[in-house]
Amino acid sequence: MDHLDDATRTELEAAAFRRLLRHLDEHKEVQNIDLMILADFCRNCLSKWLVSAAEERGEALDYEAAREYVYGMPYSEWKTHYQQEATPQQQAAFAARQAQKQEKAR
């Protein structure tokens, strides 16, 4: 992508991000804990990254507004309709992932 000008690259990155959000929206069965176990990020992380990017540019973006953008609805509504209780297996896999990250950090 080095041959692209900054504006075009930014437009492509933004389009890919919007596609990622649509994909996550189309797959609400994928729980945040599953994303955290497999990829070490979730929908909440995307929301935090948006807030951080806004702050870096001197813009104000409320975390709840960012979450509503990422989730496509208020987080409380998404949680009520789509979030499931983490299974013991998911909790164990998440704990193992966290331990693995801590070990790498040493």
Automatic annotation (TrEMBL):
UniProt-listed SUPFAM superfamilies: SMc04008-like (SSF158757)
Gene3D superfamilies: SMc04008-like
Coiled coil spans: none
One Pfam family linked to the record: DUF1244
Domain SMc04008-like as annotated: residue spans: 30-95
Record's protein name: DUF1244 domain-containing protein
Taxonomic path: Bacteria, Pseudomonadati, Pseudomonadota, Gammaproteobacteria, Oceanospirillales
